[in-house]
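Feature request, filed as a ticket because there's no other form

It would be nice if the structure record came with a short human-readable summary line next to the tokens. Right now we just get the raw output. Example of a typical job, pasted below so the devs can see what we mean:
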Amino acid sequence: MEAVERCRRQVPGAALAKALTRLGQIERDAGNGDAARPVYEEAVAIYRVEGDVLGLAHALRHLGDVHQDLGRGSLAAPCYEEALDLYRHHVLTRRSDLANAIRSMAIHKEDAGDLEAARRLWTEARDLYASLGGLVGRLLGRAPNPGVVESSEHLARLGQGEIRSPP
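Raw output as currently delivered:
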């Protein structure tokens, strides 16, 4: 919290937005979604003004996750949609960031009962996560990327009709 207040006084803009996203993550990790929401909303507003497209996409995805965690899927959807659009159209988007945003949207679609969209998204996320490990990781015998494992598990459940019930 001190870093956020220092940024508010001394270095507004992108540095403040970055501090806010870190504070938002701390609140989420502590199970305080209601406290994380306004923090992420402020970060989103700052990134919009600053024109930081990738920062905005990141903050939007996390804001969507907060809404999803709180059972507010209708508020999560536009956050995920905008984040995905920004990531998909920015030349400097990292595959890991895109995969994480797709994962969030897949969870949202699955929770909402849109199984076909969830399958497509989980497949895309799995493929992106798989591309992150690369040949070197496989040659060294490293464990599969956790994103690949999670995506595969969801796809297996969706294929067998074992899904979570929509709220």
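Something like this underneath would help us a lot:
The chain has a mean pLDDT of 89.
Residues 108 and 114 are 9 Å apart (CA to CA).
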